[in-house]
Design goal:
By secondary structure, the chain is an alpha/beta fold. 29% of the residues lie in helices and 29% in strands. It is built from ten helices and 20 strands.
Length: 397
C-alpha cells in the first residue's frame, strides 16, 4: 500500500525490465508520461505500463538519467526518518569492516548505499561530502542532521563540483557546512600508517580511499623488491611498499605538490626519501627514457576517459603506459595496473593490457582482479558503479 502521494512517471511497455533486474536508473527515453508536474530533484513514484508500482526515486527532467531509485518499497515515506535509517545502516556496515588501525574510510557510497548522488568520506574527525544530483541536494539538510547526530564530526566540508553536477542543474559548491572554518587538512591513519589529507585542494575528497585493500596487497608483495610507483599522487602505495620492506621504492608524479606530499608521507612513516626517491616527472616520458628495470610496478593513473567520446583516446593512453611499464618489468616481476575511468569497461581494460603485452612480446599470468574495498559497496544490479578496475599480473621467469 502506498502511504504517501508522490508525482508519478509511467514507463513504456517493457522498459521496466532493468529496474526489475536491480538497476537503479531509468533513462528519459523509457518514460511514457509524467503525472503531477514534479520539479527537478523531487521524489516520484515509477510505475510500469500496467500501473504497477516499481520504486521511489529522484526525478530530473534535465538529464538522460531521469529517475534514480531511492527505495524499492513504494510504501516508504522518503523523509528524515527514512534517511536516518539509511545513515545508521551505512555506519553499521563500516563498523563491521573497518579495522581499529584505520580512521579514514568511505561512509556513504552513492547508489551502493542507497544515496544516489552522495559521497561521504571520513577523515578522522572530519566528514567530507560530495553531492552530484538535484535530488540529493534537496535531501541534504536532513541527511546532515543524521550525520551530525550519529557521527558527531568536528567538521563537515562539502566539495561538490564537476560536469555531473552541472548536468543536474546545480552550481558548484565548496565550503564548510559545520565546525571551524580552518585550513582543510586532516591527519589520518590507515592500517596504522599515517597520512595528511588535504580535503580542500586534493583530488577526489583528498585521498584515494578506494585503494586501501590494494595497498595492503602491494605492501605484502613488496618484500625484497625494487618498486616503481607511477602516478604516485601523495605516495600511499609507496609508503605501504616501503613498510613491506621493499629494497627501494621510486615514486613518480608530474605534480610538484603531490611529490612534496609523497616525500613527507615517507618521512611521516619513518622512511628516508633519499632511500626511496620521489621524482617529479611526466610518467610517459620517464618510462620511454628509462633504462632501469623493476620487480614490482604500480600503474594507477588519473581518469583518462571522462566521457564516452574519450574512450578511443584513453584506450591508446592505457595501452601506451602499460606497454612502457611491461618493457621495464623484470622476469618474475609483478605489475598492478588500474583504470578508474567509468567509461573503460572491465573487458575493454583487459583487452588493452593484453594488447600491450603482445606488443611488448611478453607472456603474463593473471594473479588477481583488483577492485575498490568493501566500504565502496555496489548495488548488485548496477555494474556501472564498478569504476575501479585493476589487474595483478606476473611476468614469468
Amino acid at each position: 500500500m502506498i502511504k504517501n502521494h508522490y508525482p508519478e512517471i509511467m514507463l513504456k511497455s517493457g522498459r521496466e525490465a532493468a529496474l526489475l533486474r536491480g538497476h537503479p536508473w531509468v533513462f528519459s527515453g523509457a518514460i511514457a508520461n509524467i503525472r503531477g508536474n514534479p520539479s527537478d530533484g523531487e521524489v516520484v513514484l515509477a510505475r510500469d505500463a500496467e500501473g504497477r508500482a516499481l520504486a521511489l526515486g529522484f526525478f530530473n527532467s534535465r538529464t538522460d538519467i531521469s529517475f534514480r531509485v531511492v527505495s524499492r518499497d513504494s510504501g516508504n515515506a522518503v523523509d528524515a526518518s527514512f534517511w536516518n535509517r539509511r545513515v545508521l545502516d551505512a555506519l553499521e556496515l563500516r563498523r563491521r569492516i573497518i579495522g581499529e588501525g584505520t580512521n579514514a574510510y568511505r561512509l556513504i557510497h552513492a547508489e551502493g548505499d542507497g544515496f544516489p548522488g552522495l559521497i561521504a568520506d571520513v577523515y578522522n574527525d572530519t566528514l567530507v561530502l560530495s553531492v552530484t544530483t538535484a535530488g540529493m541536494e534537496r535531501q541534504k539538510p536532513v541527511i546532515l542532521d543524521a550525520l551530525l547526530a550519529h557521527m558527531k564530526p568536528a567538521r563537515i566540508y562539502e566539495q561538490s563540483a564537476g560536469r555531473s553536477r552541472q548536468l543536474e542543474g546545480l552550481a558548484d559548491f565548496r565550503g564548510f557546512l559545520h565546525g571551524p572554518d580552518q585550513e582543510g587538512c586532516a591527519r589520518v591513519t590507515e592500517n596504522g600508517r599515517r597520512f595528511d589529507v588535504d580535503f580542500v585542494h586534493g583530488q577526489k575528497t583528498g585521498f584515494f580511499l578506494d585503494q586501501r585493500v590494494n595497498r595492503e596487497k602491494i605492501g605484502f608483495l613488496s618484500k625484497g623488491r625494487k618498486v616503481l610507483n607511477c602516478f604516485c599522487y601523495t605516495g600511499a602505495f609507496s609508503v605501504y611498499a616501503a613498510a613491506g620492506m621493499a629494497k627501494k621504492v621510486v615514486s613518480l608524479d608530474i605534480s610538484e605538490s603531490a611529490c612534496a606530499a609523497a616525500a613527507q608521507h615517507l618521512r611521516l612513516n619513518g622512511f628516508n626519501p633519499e632511500d626511496h626517491p620521489v621524482i617529479e616527472s611526466d610518467v610517459f616520458d620517464y618510462l620511454r627514457n628509462l633504462r632501469e628495470c623493476f620487480d614490482l610496478i604500480i600503474l594507477d593513473p588519473p581518469v583518462f576517459a571522462k566521457n564516452k567520446r574519450d574512450v578511443a583516446h584513453a584506450s591508446r593512453g592505457y595501452k601506451d603506459i602499460n606497454l612502457q611499464a611491461l618493457r621495464h618489468l623484470e622476469r618474475g616481476g609483478l605489475m598492478a595496473t588500474f583504470s578508474c575511468s567509468n567509461f573503460i569497461e572491465e573487458d575493454l581494460f583487459g583487452k588493452i593490457v593484453l594488447g600491450a603485452a603482445r606488443d611488448a612480446r611478453v607472456e603474463l599470468q593473471l594473479l588477481a582482479r583488483l577492485e575498490a574495498g568493501p566500504d565502496h559497496p555496489l548495488a548488485a544490479g548496477h555494474p556501472e558503479g564498478r569504476y575501479l578496475k585493476g589487474l595483478l599480473l606476473r611476468k614469468p621467469l
